[in-house]
Design a protein that fits this description.
Layout lengths: L2 E2 L5 E2 L4 E8 L21 H14 L4 E6 L3 H14 L4 E2 L15 E2 L2 E2 L22 H18 L4 E6 L1 H11 L18 E7 L2 E8 L8 E3 L2
Parallel strand pairs: 3-8, 4-5, 4-8
Antiparallel strand pairs: 1-2, 3-9, 6-7, 9-10, 10-11
Length: about 220
């Protein structure tokens, strides 16, 4: 979709470009650890089905750019999308999971590593958060990656495969909401698609879909 100037030529400033932020599918994690950036965590059988559903969701769309976090689960989610679209997967390190001081440990309210007082100092500021990469830094880098993908796909669509927290705080940032939040209330299911509509270099709309769950039904963002 392209606007035209008074001279009748396309105005690139008003071109509509959509960037789909895809969360990876379910991961095989029998130990229940916070795997974060640890290599070697791959999609489960259900996760592979979710990745295929995401690929099916992209069928017939005008997608010209496909990028992914470097982590195994993201690359494995991108693979069927690449096969469906006939596109190479470009790796963008800015799409990676945030670093976290509890990586490799089991965590939970009242159990796992959180029962040990030596870890409590990392919980002192949930608004930053103090246990990992600051929300602002995560949102800034992922939004920059999405904007670069939008420029590369100008006037078309792009796919960026990432992770739950990066996608969620990026959405909150573009919607003008505070970045700290209750993790239990994130609208970013496994295999979901959060789509950012760009025009003139800025995000003008957000939509959400769950190809693996609710038959692709979309919920408009604020």
């Amino acid at each position: 979709m392209t606007a035209t100037s008074a001279s009748g030529t396309p105005s690139s400033a008003d071109e509509i470009t959509i960037v789909h932020l895809v969360r990876h599918g379910e991961v095989a994690n029998p130990g229940g650890v916070l795997y974060g950036r640890i290599p070697g965590f791959h999609l489960s059988e259900d996760g592979q089905t979710m990745a295929k559903a995401a690929a099916d969701f992209m069928t017939g769309r005008d997608i010209t750019v496909l990028r992914s976090s470097p982590l195994d689960r993201a690359r494995e989610t991108a693979a069927p999308i690449a096969a469906e679209l006939g596109l190479p997967v470009e790796i963008d390190d800015r799409l990676i999971e945030p670093w976290n001081k509890f990586e490799g440990l089991t965590v939970g309210v009242g159990d796992g590593s959180l029962r040990s007082p030596k870890y409590w100092i990392h919980l002192r500021n949930p608004f930053l958060p103090s246990w990992g990469e600051p929300y602002r830094a995560v949102a800034d880098r992922v939004l920059a990656a999405a904007a670069d993908a939008a420029r590369a796909a100008r006037g078309h669509e792009a796919v960026c495969v990432s992770h739950q927290l990066p996608i969620w705080v990026t959405r909150r940032q573009v919607e003008g909401r505070r970045l700290w939040h209750d993790p239990r209330r994130r609208q970013c299911a496994l295999g979901s698609v959060t789509s950012l509509t760009f025009s003139g270099g800025r995000v003008i709309g957000v939509s959400y879909a769950e190809p693996s769950g609710s038959a692709g039904a979309q919920v408009a963002g604020a």
